Amino acid sequence: MTAIPLDQFDAVLGSTSTEISSVALGGRVLSTSDEWFAPASSLLKVGPAPSLKGQFGPKGALFDGWETRRHNPTYDWVILRLGPNAGGRLIGFDVDTANFIGNEAPEISIHALTLTPEEEASTGNALAENDARWETLVPVSPCGPSQRHLFKLEADKQQKVYTHVKLHMIPDGGIARFRVYGVIPPPPVGQGDGEQIDATNSALNVLDLAHCLNGGRIVFTDDQHFGAGSNILLPGRGKDMGDGWETRRSRGKGHFNWAIIKL
């Protein structure tokens, strides 16, 4: 595992992988040890965490993120199901403590495992925090207040496909966003997103190869001034113009914009 400077985010993670934990791709929280002050589900929100300074609720100051009680002698934890049905090959992580100052998580560690469809069907949301199959991907690492912490996995760890990730917050505190970056491999037959199944011959199944959850990925756009090119491969319909690809206006003769999609 290597800690990555923030100015290298695009080169190391942003342009080489997909945020496969995002709620936009179906990422979700399965369980958590504690979320007394702020829900763990906020970790997977698409946008950055806004400051809620000066706003208070029944339990005290409000934060957009995951915040636990100050009681835990060991660690708090949250278990996530990644968005792709068949999982993804993990590249790295972004642990963001935005707006948590003095109540941020002092340390974190990150773990992952793989479940087959059959194992997942029998386990459901009851995957145990202490399951022996959890593998440590990021060992205990320090966190600072209100900042992003980027981690890149070693090459040998990037080859395995994982379906679930567990984040430890040591011993407790708050984290605003947690983003898991990886590459989505082509799914096994029958596990593709939106796959049309031919019951008589699986070779005749129909699958959207450009769909991000089926391994499609934008590798280059000539312009994305107003909206990221990767948005055009997201599931469903765009909620507004900001949820699509939008370029600068040009009226030059023969001008066009373009994107390259890796299937």
Automatic annotation (TrEMBL):
Domain of life of the organism encoding this protein: Eukaryota
Domain spans labelled Allantoicase: 26-183, 215-263
GO biological process: allantoin catabolic process
GO molecular function, one term: allantoicase activity
Name of the protein in its database record: Allantoicase
A Pfam family of this chain: Allantoicase
Stated family: Belongs to the allantoicase family.
SUPFAM superfamilies per record: Galactose-binding domain-like
The organism's taxonomic lineage, starting at the top: Eukaryota, Fungi, Dikarya, Basidiomycota, Ustilaginomycotina
